[in-house]
């Protein structure tokens, strides 16, 4: 039988896409041992927005979360998503910080790092790739798939060859918005297979309704693996369903390596978790229906669920359709960047401001300004001249790799934290998310003091 690997996303991308990454460790710790026996090639469990959400919303140490998963999953590869020079944040960090972070991720349990750059500017993944290889983990270089007048098959094959030449042991085609059609997927996987020898993994979402068909054509074209989500946390803005894909692919002659009977137990565990978040209104049923219009506006699952949550918070959910319509216009003005983190959030936020303020670019976000200046890398296409002139106002664009101009952040961060930092991992958390990490550390110290006081009182 032909082999096709399965990567389970319920612990990261599925819950990120469906409910803005609000799942605490306590909601999944009891099923980890069963998941470890299911035969997954890997489980995507860290990276993406999980790090930010742990600190910002869940009052969890993201490093401890990773170590907990590793302790329960000794036989399954643990996988994370890394935004290249952005790490898990929303701006570029120094090469020193990237190396330290990647090394720490591997030391704390990560086996595979899927590394991407939001602009497909491969200069911005090289440092992370080199650090990953040096640490002994698998570096999976990534092509962010999008549709535009400047993105075509030849460009993607060129990017794939760059990734292989960089030393990556595998490649992922990352279709974050679920817009890759079955034919486009078949053609791209086939073309890459002719040019490179490393395994190819395909990642998509069910947002547009194409995902299941796209995965079948990926398998036919010779893809080595696909990303799926356990059924109650699948479909919609999440990934296609693990059980359904394994069932269909097995009948077609593929060995997915899965102990199918264990999938029911895994799904049974997550059903009440899903129901809990639905009752809270965090898991909005809106994200489960097919959004064929996404073929036009190309908004990824995580971005869509976040937009819904943000507009609800601002009591402006009635503006959602206008924001969705404005998003591709902003993207065109910015030279057609792929809508993937952090560009998806940046473009979505700018589109929201344009709609809510009633005037386009009345207020330009600082991240958009940084993008136009070149801090995020090379824009895929020409930026609107009027917008560019408004932002630059006589200043010069950055032509080289912006990270090379950045001094190491670690020494100053370590000094600022002082005794609040227990170790190097705390310092890295602070560098990635200063305010959120500081709040977390201060609450941790307060809890420590309260426990100590209670212990003294008990002894007395």
Summarize the structure.
By secondary structure, this protein is of the alpha/beta class. The chain contains 20 helices and ten strands.
The averaged pLDDT comes out at 94
Series of secondary-structure elements, N-terminal to C-terminal: EEHHEHHEHEHEHEHEHEHEHHHHHHHHHH
Low-confidence stretches: none
> Tally the helices: what do you get?
20
Helix/strand-derived class?
A: alpha/beta
Instruction: Give the terminus-to-terminus CA distance.
Output: 69 Å
Number of strands: 10
What percentage of the residues does DSSP assign to strands (E)?
5-15%
Described by strand count, sense and barrel closure, the largest sheet is:
8 strands, parallel, barrel
Computed over alpha carbons, the radius of gyration is: 22 Å
Going across the biggest sheet, name each strand in turn. Answer: 2-3-4-5-6-7-8-9
State the helical fraction: 40-55%
Shape type: globular
Question: Could you characterize the architecture of this molecule?
Answer:
- The protein is of the alpha/beta class and 460 residues long.
- The protein has helices at residues 10-19, 32-37, 50-58, 62-72, 95-107, 126-135, 153-165, 182-195, 211-220, 242-251, 260-280, 294-297, 301-313, 320-333, 343-356, 366-373, 385-392, 410-417, 424-432, 434-459, and strands at residues 2-3, 5-8, 42-47, 77-82, 112-115, 138-144, 170-174, 200-203, 225-228, 254-255.
- Strands 2-3-4-5-6-7-8-9 form an 8-stranded parallel β-barrel, surrounded by 7 helices. A two-stranded parallel sheet has the order 1-10.
- It comes from Candidatus Faecalibacterium faecipullorum.
- GO terms for molecular function: pyruvate carboxylase activity.
- Residues 4-264 form the Pyruvate carboxyltransferase domain.
- This is Pyruvate carboxylase subunit B.
């Amino acid at each position: 039988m032909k082999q096709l690997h399965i990567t389970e996303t319920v612990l990261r991308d599925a819950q990120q896409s469906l409910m803005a990454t609000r799942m605490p460790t306590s909601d999944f710790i009891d099923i980890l041992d069963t998941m470890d026996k299911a035969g997954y090639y890997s489980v995507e469990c860290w990276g993406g927005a999980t790090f930010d959400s742990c600190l910002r919303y869940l009052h969890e140490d993201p490093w401890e979360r990773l170590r907990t998963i590793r302790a329960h999953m000794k036989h399954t590869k643990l996988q994370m998503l890394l935004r290249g020079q952005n790490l898990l944040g929303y701006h570029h960090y120094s090469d020193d910080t990237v190396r330290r972070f990647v090394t720490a991720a591997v030391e704390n349990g990560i086996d595979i790092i899927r590394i991407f750059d939001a602009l497909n500017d491969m200069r911005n993944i090289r440092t992370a790739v080199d650090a990953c290889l040096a640490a002994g983990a698998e570096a999976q270089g990534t092509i962010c798939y999008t549709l535009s007048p400047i993105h075509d098959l030849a460009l993607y094959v060129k990017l794939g060859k760059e990734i292989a030449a960089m030393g990556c042991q595998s490649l992922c085609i990352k279709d974050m918005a679920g817009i890759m059609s079955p034919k486009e997927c078949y053609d791209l996987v086939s073309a890459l297979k002719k040019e490179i020898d490393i395994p190819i993994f395909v990642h998509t979402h069910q947002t547009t309704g194409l995902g299941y068909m796209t995965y079948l054509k990926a398998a036919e074209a010779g893809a080595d693996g696909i990303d799926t989500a356990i059924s109650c946390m699948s479909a919609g803005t999440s990934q296609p369903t693990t059980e359904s894909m394994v069932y269909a692919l097995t009948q077609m002659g593929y060995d997915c390596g899965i102990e199918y009977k264990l999938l029911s137990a895994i799904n049974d565990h997550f059903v009440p978790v899903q129901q809990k978040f639905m009752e809270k209104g965090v898991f909005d049923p809106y994200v489960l229906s097919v959004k064929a219009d996404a073929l036009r506006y190309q908004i990824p699952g995580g971005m869509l669920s976040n937009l819904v949550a943000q507009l609800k918070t601002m009591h402006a959910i009635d503006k959602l359709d206008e924001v969705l319509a404005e998003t591709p216009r902003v993207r065109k003005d910015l030279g057609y960047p792929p809508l993937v983190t952090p560009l998806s959030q940046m473009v979505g936020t700018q589109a929201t401001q344009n709609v809510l303020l009633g005037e386009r670019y009345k207020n330009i976000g600082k991240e958009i300004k940084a993008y136009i200046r070149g801090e995020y890398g090379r824009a895929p296409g020409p930026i609107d001249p009027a917008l560019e002139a408004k932002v630059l106002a006589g200043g010069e664009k950055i032509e080289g790799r912006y990270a090379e101009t950045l001094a190491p952040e670690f020494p100053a961060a370590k000094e600022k934290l002082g005794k609040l930092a227990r170790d190097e991992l705390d310092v890295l958390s602070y560098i990635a998310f200063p305010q959120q990490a500081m709040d977390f550390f201060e609450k941790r110290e307060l809890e420590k003091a309260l426990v100590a006081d209670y212990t003294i009182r008990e002894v007395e």
